[in-house]
Amino acid sequence: MFASRRSIAAIALTLLAVSACKKKPEPAPVPVPPPAPPAAAPRVNQDSIDAARRAYEAAAAKTRADAEAAARRAEAERVRATIAAKVYFDYDKDEIRDDQKATLDAKVGIMNANTAVRLRLAGHTDDRGSDEYNLALGQRRAASVQRYLVARGLNASRFETVSFGKERPVAQGQNEEAWSKNRRGEFEIIAGGDNLRM
Known about the structure:
Blueprint: H1 2-22, H2 40-84, E1 87-88, H3 101-113, E2 118-124, H4 131-151, E3 159-165, H5 176-182, E4 184-191
Parallel strand pairs: 2-3
Antiparallel strand pairs: 1-4, 2-4
């Protein structure tokens, strides 16, 4: 009986050992990768980047356009100022003074660059002398300016002349300072004044 208990115990141990050997450990779980983001998610970011780039480029283009427009306006103002610059005459004279030639020469360059421009040349005098004499002197001064400009290659048809004599003084007074400012030739654009350039 003792032997049979022993055999039962041996059998039980064998069965236990065999059953223990048959069990294999379960493999460690393989980590599951996170789900891929939806296909639209990267596009949303790229769309935002593209929209920001387009907005930046549009703002930069507007800034450049504004700067160019301002430069064109400033250039047009410089041209207008150069054209409007007066010339002055000596008492009872209609000859172009040497110190006034540079003012007229600057107008020649502008007239060549702006072929549609036409000017009114107005002759003025100081208040000494009769109305009739001063109207004639103002006309001679305007004609003298026209001759000077035509001699530098400009067509006479681009000018009209007028005399105001002593009727439109720019300075009041009975002294040389006032008189010298009133003995002048003035320039007015009467055609082609749009888009002026140097």
